[in-house]
Amino acid sequence: MFKIKSMIMLVTIILSTAISGLVFAANTPEMSQAQLIQHLSTAPTEVIVLDVRSKKEFDLGHIKGAINISYDRIKENLTKLTQYKDKTMVVYCRSGRRAGVAETILAENGFNKVRHLTGDMNAWQAAELPTVTSH
Fold first, then answer.
1. Residue 133: inside a domain
2. Distance set, CA 107 to CA 2, 28, 63, 64, 102 (Å)
3. What pTM did the predictor assign?
4. Structural domain of residue 98, as residue ranges?
5. Coil, strand, or helix at residue 117?
């Protein structure tokens, strides 16, 4: 009986964490692929692209100029990101869940211009938009 209750609590915690990330991602204003491309070409110093996937995923292909900080390391790297607080920060991962977690942390720490890349990397690649690899 104790094991079942513990398991139910664990599953509940995991699901609530995942759902809260998705809910925030849904509440974060989005930036489309076309809008991001336009911003990067017309005002590249005003937009920061934050890839919150793993280093391995990032190395295999990312948006040119993106900064890579894994979603689970955002809190410990806030000091690195503070310099970008007044910039529009466009966050993406593979499909949205990890970006939602990162967006929540950023918003809780005073980042007011956070945007979620519509469709994340899955949609970027499906649209055959350019990526670069790390060596």
1. no
2. 38, 9, 23, 24, 9
3. 0.81
4. 2-126
5. strand
135, part of any domain? no
Angle (CA) 17-56-101 rounded to 5° is 20
Q: Domain count of the chain?
A: 1
Alpha helix (H) residue ranges in 43-108: 55-60, 78-81, 97-108
**pLDDT tens-digit series, residues 74-124:** 999 999 999 999 999 999 999 999 999 999 999 999 999 999 999 999 999
**Measured CA distances, 15 to 22, 52, 89 (Å):** 10, 20, 27
Q: Is residue 134 part of a domain?
A: no
Contact 101, 21 (CB under 8 A): yes
Residue-wise pLDDT tens digits, 8-65: 554 444 444 444 444 444 589 999 999 999 999 999 999 999 999 999 999 999 999 9
